[in-house]
Amino acid sequence: VGNSTGERYSDEEYIIAVSEHEPAGTKEVADAVGVARQSADYRLRQLEEEERVRSKKIGNSLAWSVVDDEP
């Protein structure tokens, strides 16, 4: 499975991983998707720019959550 940018895992896989572990640490998402932590961090930051997930700084870590589509 890939998308137009040639990435192996879909945005949906990241969003599902975040939703299943909310509030999800980057490492938890990486483990759930099956990628390195750095890869997950990069993709999660892209998704945050697209306002599909949001992050909250907790200590030295980021905790990720899914942005609800509902108003």
Task: From the structure above, extract its key features.
single chain; 71 residues; alpha+beta; three-stranded antiparallel sheet; 3 helices
Write a concise synopsis of the structure shown.
Helix content is 45%, strand content 20%. It has helices at residues 11-21, 26-33, 37-49; strands spanning 24-25, 53-58, 61-66.
Write up what this structure looks like.
The chain is an alpha+beta fold. The chain has helices at 11-21, 26-33, 37-49; strands at 24-25, 53-58, 61-66. Mean pLDDT is 90; it is low at 1-5. The radius of gyration is 11 Å and the shape is globular. The chain starts with 10 loop residues before the first helix and ends in a 5-residue tail after the last strand. A three-stranded antiparallel sheet has the order 1-3-2. It is built from three helices and three strands, in the order αβααββ.
